[in-house]
Design brief:
The complex is a heterodimer of chains A (695) and B (259). Chain A is built from 28 helices and 13 strands. Chain A has 695 residues and is an alpha+beta fold. Among the domains of chain A are: 202 residues, no CATH class; 105 residues, Alpha-Beta Plaits; 93 residues, no CATH class. Chain B is built from five helices and 15 strands. In chain B, strands 6-5-4-3-2-1-15-14-11-10-9-8-7 form a 13-stranded antiparallel β-sheet, sandwiched between helices. Classes of the chains: A alpha+beta (695), B alpha+beta (259).
């Protein structure tokens, strides 16, 4: 019998067998179908997540590759590094060298200098803020805003006095309160404001040092920022989009808040509380009635109504009181009571009050502690160890398109490279020399903690008190004090200043993103050729733990697939062994009339393979269909973390040829392995056994 | 059994002999603490030139030259930094219970807390300010001890109610002979040791307004007990007791210095 005849016979036999053992075929087929479906859909989903995350990471902060000094102690982790005490990733002392070296690599589109650090900014309390504005006006000899500011300050002092009067009725310790009321009365007195006309600074001194400390302290906000060449950044990170104000103009010093940070931290306290409740109710499906956290938030918010009243002038207070009385006619009392009741929201009335808040209350308030166009004072510990403060203009608020609500992608604020360098504050040789001169002036002995007692009070120590003559000294004899910066905060700089300076790391944006691996080698080589000792990592490594997340998902998927296929293997194997037993007579007879063992083996293998191909094809088809359907409607991200992984609020998975091939190959291999043992048993069946069964 | 009795009797005897021969009475302890304050106080104004050296593990050593002004009668204190250049003009102003910090480069004041680390060093406002131990704390005698070769009284201080101090508990070691404070430990509310400070050398100058001597430590060595290895040293090189200008303790004065 020729090969073709044998094959034809085997195929016919396989069909007949599959058909005659319909139940077994159906069970095994379903398992195979489900397995293929899982492989196709699972790998397609994970591949899509990886692609989306690549988009999220590369288009927001990382670029395709990141380069940084090989001297740093820590790994670069753009999304998961330290805060304030940022990781030590070394430094690129002269960014232009890196830029020059990489401009020789054909696939490199752009090299963007970067540095991630943390700093603080203080939003002043209401009274402090008003006094600061008054001081600025006085200094600038600007009479225009004086009347409004005075009225606002008096209104605040009046409210503070009222609060203390209420406190007087509920406490026995009245000494402090009475002292405070006396100071507030002085702040409100006509005599004081008459004096303001003649000597405004003296009055400000009193208000600043005696009265302002009685009010709410300013709010210290920690933030993370990216210092970069803003022009290059905006050009090459295409998810960047301005939400409010404008982008930092070309070659200009300035700052931008990320939308998420602006809304979550800088916004008016009560508005933030309302937003939080809104989010919990509508995005997290919580209810106020069942959630203790929300109840506590609402109680807090209701107690803090003064954050609203402090910002209102007399006219606004009266207007809001009238409007709230109309809304809440049952409430007795003034604006504080009305607001407290208004802010005590329930599941039933929240949506209406949320809308009312934004329609009636919000327009009267200063919604953001720092507004677009404001100059803010940023403070940070420099690398030289000194505390650095500088004024910087807030130009606008930005976000990464599609990643608006992802905390991870949207936590970073933006700053120009020159300001970044100032805040980073390297220890220069000149400064070292200056410090060393100060050290020599005084010549202190360096004593370690463990030697202190022996050194100070041991043998030869124990000095008696020395009498000295105080002749007086002039502390300003050889000292020039720093001058208050009078230059504009939004001054400009040249591109050369940006390029020829320090950066911590640099993002490399590629022309062809599919060639990341090859480009990485080229970039490494180019840096080496330029004599730069640097590390090159891809976006996944650069993003820190986040980048490894897809690997984790993939590992979980593979383990799940593996377990399912082990189970499938056992089931297929068992049913085939049983089928073999049922077919002992048939196989024995075949062997008796001259069929070789090899033919029996082939018959079994082919049978399973045909079932595998058939079920696999249907499974793969179903998987592809389902994935394509999901790709059309989009799979919603169930939480904020997943928005980042999904590259937006919905994932649109796509199925690729590789997913289909993977599904089919896996199922056929599994089918063949699971048939090996039953087929082997079948080849062992002798004609005699068949006859014995007959008996 | 007998041997155990003997050894425990011996141990008890040893303990007894180690106990202070003459424990200070409460009045005596209070007097020791009071004297620390009185000696350092000046009835008139006080100006001193101080160097601050800050050593932190893994960081550059930092040095500052500063001048501090005190008017003890009014509870006023001003610290103005003179060197290095980048820090010149920065300053702190303490008025009553409030501490303000000024940075001339941004022209802004900020209110700071009592626990402020002066310029990020291990020193606190109180290290430069008038000594008010008796007013802020209640004292308890712990024992007579030896500090190196020097015989000292060990005294524990607990913050009085309502006093806003940087550390609620202090341990002091006061020279029995000279009555000078030699060692001080600052403890947090939890009892955790935060700083150990040594005052190895004291100086005194005659004050005409007080008609007595005013004492000041020539060196203050502050060791951070939380971040081991970090230390701050303050050296007072000059003292001037002549009256200061009337308006020196104002925001306007400090601002005017850098304009």
């Amino acid at each position: 019998m020729g090969f073709i005849d044998t094959t034809r016979m085997l195929v016919l036999l396989a069909f007949r067998n599959l058909f005659s053992h319909r139940v077994k075929t159906a069970i095994v087929g379903m398992i195979m179908l489900f397995g293929t479906l899982l492989v196709v859909m699972g790998t397609a989903l994970v591949d899509s997540i990886e692609r989306a995350m690549e988009q999220s990471i590369t288009a927001s902060l990382a670029g395709h590759l990141q380069v940084y000094s090989a001297k740093g102690k820590d790994q670069l982790a753009l999304f998961g590094g330290g805060f304030m005490g940022a990781d030590d990733i070394g430094r690129i002392d002269d960014f232009s060298k890196v830029q020059d070296a990489l401009s020789k690599v054909a696939n490199v589109e752009a090299v963007v200098p970067m540095g991630l650090e943390g700093a603080t900014v203080t939003a002043p309390g209401e009274l402090e803020g008003a006094l600061e504005r008054l001081r600025v006006a006085v200094r600038a000899n600007d009479k225009a805003p004086l009347a409004t500011l005075q009225a606002q300050i008096k209104e605040l002092l009046q409210q503070m006095k009222e609060e203390r009067k209420v406190s007087l009725t509920i406490t026995t310790d009245t000494k402090d309160l009475n002292e405070q009321i006396a100071k507030l009365d002085e702040g409100l007195s006509d005599a004081l404001w008459a004096r303001f006309e003649e000597d405004p600074l003296a009055v400000l001194e009193f208000l600043d040092t005696q009265v302002a400390p009685l009010a709410e302290e300013g709010r210290l906000m920690y933030f993370r920022y990216l210092g970069t060449d803003v022009d290059l950044f905006v050009q090459h990170f295409d998810r960047f989009e301005v939400v409010k104000g404008e982008r930092i103009p070309p070659h200009t010093r300035g700052f931008m808040f990320s939308e998420r940070f602006y809304e979550r931290v800088v916004k008016h306290r009560i508005a933030r509380y309302m937003d939080r409740v809104n989010e919990s109710l509508h995005e997290e499906d919580l209810t106020i009635a069942d959630d203790a956290g929300l109840q506590s938030l609402i109680r807090r918010s209701a107690r803090q109504h003064r954050y609203i009243t402090y910002q209102l002038d007399a006219k606004e207070s009266a207007q809001l009181t009238d409007e709230l009385k109309a809304l809440l006619p049952e409430v007795q009392g003034g604006l504080p009571e009305l607001l407290a009741e208004f802010l005590t929201v329930t599941d039933e009335n929240f949506d209406a009050r949320y809308a009312w808040f934004y329609a009636h209350v919000a327009p009267m308030l200063e919604m953001y502690a720092i507004d677009v166009g404001d100059t803010m004072t940023v403070r940070s510990y420099t690398k030289s160890g000194f505390l650095k403060a500088l004024n910087i203009k807030l130009f606008g608020v930005y976000r990464f398109k599609g990643l608006e609500s992802s905390d991870l992608a949207s936590g970073t604020n933006l700053m120009d490279m020159l300001t970044f360098r100032e805040l980073y504050g390297l220890m220069t040789d000149a400064k070292k020399a200056e410090l060393s001169a100060i050290k020599d002036e005084v010549g202190l002995k360096d004593v370690a903690a463990e030697d202190a007692e022996a050194a100070f009070f041991g043998e030869g120590a124990g000095e008696v008190v020395a009498r000295v003559d105080a002749e007086g000294f002039d502390e300003f004899a050889d000292v020039k004090l720093a001058r208050t910066e009078t230059v504009a905060v939004d001054r400009t700089f040249t591109q050369s200043e940006v390029d020829h300076g320090m950066a911590l790391n640099a993002a490399v944006v590629l022309k062809d993103r599919t060639r990341i691996k090859a480009s990485m080698i080229e970039v490494e080589q180019a840096l080496k050729d330029a004599g730069l000792d640097m590390k090159v990592v891809d976006w996944r490594t650069a993003s820190g733990l986040v980048g490894q997340f897809v690997l984790l998902i993939r590992a979980v998927l593979y383990i799940a697939i593996f377990i399912i296929f082990v189970v499938a293997l056992v089931i297929i194997n068992n049913s085939m062994v049983m089928a073999t037993m049922e077919r002992t007579t048939e196989i024995g007879t075949m062997r008796a009339i001259g069929a070789q063992r090899r033919l029996v083996l082939n018959m079994f293998m082919l049978e399973t393979m045909m079932l595998g191909v058939l079920a696999g094809a249907v499974g793969a088809g179903l998987g592809a269909g389902l994935t394509t359907w999901l790709g059309a409607v989009g799979l919603p991200a169930p939480n904020r973390q997943l928005i980042f992984l999904f590259g937006g609020p919905r994932l649109f998975p796509e199925v690729g040829a590789s997913n289909l091939v993977a599904g089919l190959v896996v199922i056929i291999v599994v089918s063949l392995i699971s048939t090996l043992y039953p087929a082997f048993i079948a080849t062992r069946i002798s004609p005699v056994a068949a006859m014995r069964t007959e008996e | 059994m007998k041997r155990a009795l003997i050894s425990s009797t011996l141990a008890l005897a040893a303990l007894m002999s180690a106990a202070p021969a003459q424990a200070l009475t409460q009045a005596e302890v209070d007097a020791v603490v009071e004297r620390l304050d009185v000696r350092q106080r000046n009835s008139g104004d006080y100006k001193a030139l101080a160097y601050i050296e800050q050593k932190e593990r893994g960081k550059n050593d930092l040095f500052y030259q500063s001048v501090f002004y005190r008017r003890d009668a009014d509870d006023k204190l001003m610290i103005l930094f003179l060197k290095p250049k980048s820090e010149a003009g920065k300053g702190y102003l303490r008025l009553d219970k409030n501490l303000f910090m000024y940075d001339p480069t941004v022209g802004k004041w900020e209110r700071r807390t009592e626990r402020e680390r002066i310029m990020g060093t291990d020193s606190r406002r109180q290290d430069f300010d008038e000594s008010r131990l008796a007013e802020e704390y209640t004292a308890k005698f712990i024992g007579d001890e030896k500090l190196g070769k020097v015989a000292v009284h060990h005294i524990e201080l607990k913050a009085r109610e309502g006093q806003d101090v940087a550390y609620p508990t202090l341990q002091l070691w006061v020279d029995q002979e000279t009555g000078n404070l030699l060692k001080r430990q600052d403890l947090a509310l939890s009892g955790r040791l935060m700083r150990t400070t040594y005052y190895p050398k004291w100086k005194k100058v005659f004050s005409e307004s007080k008609n007595a001597d005013v004492y000041y430590p020539e060196e203050i060595h502050i060791f951070d007990e939380v971040e081991k290895g970090n230390r701050t040293t303050v050296a007072i090189t000059e003292v001037d007791l002549r009256p200061l200008s009337e308006n020196i303790f104002t925001k306007a004065w400090l601002e005017s210095k850098s304009r």
